[in-house]
Amino acid sequence: MTEVKFFSYRLKGEPATLLAKEVKILKNNMKRIYSSYHILKDFKTVLAKYEIISGDITHIPQFISEVILEDDTELQKSVKRILEKLKEIGESSDRERLINGELSHHNILKSGLSTE
């Protein structure tokens, strides 16, 4: 987007200029997500970056999950709060409130996962 385009949206002066410069920088330096590494050369570069020289992806260390104990009280409290919040939004009218922004997934999860 150009400065002129921002002016057409009734942005004036410096904000339009700053936004246009930022858009230009982002456009020129766009970072690619992993799925965009579709060229073999790029793929080999990524493997080398993570020191997987052989190209054998089986050498990538597997994720080791943390042991969760059944008697973890904080976990039980968090799960209980999440289930209570989910119950609150269970009805269709509540889903509509969620869609309209009156409820937020972020707030629901945050309240359920906080350690008070």
Largest sheet, strands/sense/barrel: none
Mean pLDDT: 69
Low-confidence stretches: none
Fraction in helix: 55-70%
- Distance between the ends: 46 Å
What is the β-strand count? Answer: 0
Query: What is the CA-based Rg, rounded?
Result: 24 Å
What amount of the residues lies in strands? under 5%
- Encode the helix/strand succession as letters: HHHHHH
Number of domains: 2
Structural class determined from secondary elements:
mainly alpha
Given the C-alpha coordinates, what overall shape results? flat
Structure annotation, total helices: 6
Summarize the structure.
Helix content is 56%, strand content 0%.
Q: How would you characterize this protein structure?
A:
The two termini are 46 Å apart. Helix 4 packs antiparallel against helix 6. The model has no long low-confidence stretch (mean pLDDT 69). The chain has six helices and no strands. The chain is flat and about 60 Å long. The protein has 116 residues and is mainly α. It has two domains: 55 residues, no CATH class; 41 residues. This is 13676_t:CDS:1.
Q: Any descriptors?
A:
116 residues; mainly alpha; 2 domains; 13676_t:CDS:1
Could you give the topology of this structure?
Elements: H1 3-8, H2 13-28, H3 40-49, H4 73-88, H5 92-99, H6 105-113
Helix pairs in contact: 4-6
Protein name: 13676_t:CDS:1
Organism: Ambispora leptoticha
